[in-house]
Amino acid sequence: INDKLGGDETLLNILYDFLDHEPPLNPLLASFFSKTIGNLIARKTEQVIAFLRKKEKFISLVLKHIDTSAMMDLLLRLISCVEPATLRQEVLNWLNEAKIIQRLVELIHSSQDEDRQSNASQTLCDIIRLSRDQSNQLQDIPEPDPLLTALESQECVEQLLKNMFDGEQTENCIVNGTQVLLTLLETRVEGLMDSYTQGFERSYTVNSSILHGIEPRLKDFHQLLLSPPKKTAILTTIGVLEEPLGNARLHGSRLIAALLHTNTPSINQELCRLSTMNLLLDLFFKYTWNNFLHFQVELSIAAILSHSVQEGKTITNDLESKEEVLNGNVATENLETPENNTENIMVTHLFQKCCLVQRILDAWEANDKIQAEGGMRRGNMGHLTRIANAVVQNMEKGPMQTQISEFIKELPEDCRGRWESFVEETLTETNRRNTVDLVSTHHLHSSSEDEDIESAFPNELSLQQAFSEYQIQQMTANFVDQFGFNDEEFPNASLFEACCNERIQQFDDNEEEEDIWEEKEITYATQVKSRTRIPVHCSVSLGSGWTAVFEPVNSKPPAPCVAMDVGSSVWDSAAPENTTPEEKGWAKFTDFQPFCCSESGPRCSSPVDTESNDSDGNPKQSQDKNCK
């Protein structure tokens, strides 16, 4: 089939003609088309690529139908499924000459419908990730990826931002454009285990042209946080929210957090001038139930506190500066270190302009007052706890511990006393209550083979355990934020164990262990015995008066599990009078009239024959054939 279809241009033209239809395409047929072309690209690469390159309108037609996700998949197959590397480079150059990146960016505009914008944004994000992955995997690359180069150019970033903010601003356009920028700002950590075990800083690979393109538009993102596209009030479980935060502002906060992690001096200065961090804190305390926003603000503060040592560098990931350092062209005494980097403008801004310590204390005291009056615990208290811990930890041991300590000492006497009391008593007690003892997995291994595996892969298992601890910490904070437990009510290990003992019947450990490999006759009775340790009786409502009832296995003689009718006698009237008890409740499908295949009934919804009506709108004869 591959040889016949891939080598016959007449057949390829019949297949290609599918693109000539006006949008929107039938999604099912479009997926068939994309899958067929994609397989031909992978198996008859040279023939199909040569055929497509002769079609001048191919790229235009694919972009015309980009609102259908199958066309997005086809475009990505062209980028990722072509081999060998030389032919792939030719395809990339062909797509670049057709200005595929610039044309996709043009589709992220308020004048385009939402599906086209969304799929264009997703395509650009996938191209970025695919190109970066392939460039890392393939060492012998003849030349740089032209599509990635175009995407990371300052001109491309500026055009994207112009589409987002110049003219009419819509939430959909801002969100889709910001997603592309966030993907461009994604960083890659090389040698994860080594960097963490040896205490190295993360290595960022953000291109400086991306940052230069974003910097002049920081004022637009700040204005977005102040005045987003209008949204109507929404009803939530805690009441009516007159002014929702909105997805546009959430994505704006994500971008600010990502930019702070690059720790670019010029961007830090602009954010300080705009007082964007102060605005984010305002939103943090205004929207006390939006955990997505709380997490981004926490990430921003963590970036300021922990990555500030790199501020003296022009761009943290500038490849040229890295090469100069490695080649010895830059004097090492000029590089910023914790000793000579005595002040960081973002840290100063956070503690002086944003009054971080005072805000933490005021919010905590306000929450205590609300709870004392019988109110609900505020939803951002979990993240506020972690922010307070981050301040304490970086004051005790961090790249800017000297500067942070000085700011604490410079606080007014009453405020400094409140902070010290808060850290020594309130925060310590909160951390103690929020700590959950982890169950050790070492004793769960009962096989010597498991012990061998554990010793053979110590790094992987320790990384997995560390990740599990991180997950539990994340879940703890989110659990507190979501459900608003008082500190006294937060579940601990003993409470959890007590609940388990009360609600779950333990397995009988006194039973003599049996060799599962021993050859013996398996009887139904032994299976029943093994399955009745935890009796189960539950009733599940299925809607429309139906209830599924599940009884313990040995509570009565075996009977078929059926859905029992508790609200209608329709089945009783249809069943014969001499029905045995074992057959009661079974539906007789022979009594139903067919849903289709009849002159008067509705049409069959089979996708195989969706256009098989005659001119009068009546089903053709083939309709019955499809249903049969």
UniProtKB/TrEMBL annotation:
Q: Report which superkingdom the organism of origin falls in.
A: Eukaryota
> Which residue intervals make up region (Disordered)?
599-628
Please give the Pfam families that the UniProt record associates with this protein: SAPS
Per its record, what are the GO molecular function terms?
Answer: protein phosphatase binding; protein phosphatase regulator activity
Residues in the signal sequence: none
Please give the family membership noted in the entry. Answer: Belongs to the SAPS family.
Protein name, UniProt field: PP6R2 phosphatase
